[in-house]
Design a protein that fits this description.
By secondary structure, this protein is an alpha/beta fold. The protein contains three helices and three strands; from the N terminus they run βαβαβα. It has helices spanning 21-32, 46-56, 69-73; strands spanning 8-13, 36-39, 60-64. The chain has a three-stranded parallel β-sheet with strand order 2-1-3, sandwiched between helices. The longest helix has 12 residues, at 21-32.
């Protein structure tokens, strides 16, 4: 797989979802593919994800959704 440069990705988890292993694994794979990854960690709310994505000027947002709590946020 070739390098993908100049793509900024924001990765995080919503609400009380603490299943960050997958989010960290995806973050590392994207980084290894040449993308710049902004990892927000756990316990994020939609407004915080939105604000951080605007501040960081990301191209893509990736959210972990292992718990059903994301349905309430969506």
């Amino acid at each position: 797989m070739g390098k993908v440069e100049n793509i900024r990705v924001l990765i995080g988890t919503l609400g009380m979802d603490q299943h960050e292993v997958g989010a960290i694994a995806v973050s590392r794979m994207l980084r290894d593919a040449g993308m710049e990854v902004v990892y927000t960690g756990t316990f994020n709310l939609p407004a915080g994800i939105l604000n951080m994505s605007l501040e960081e000027d990301v191209d893509v947002i990736g959210l972990s959704c292992h718990s059903w709590e994301y349905l309430a946020f969506a």
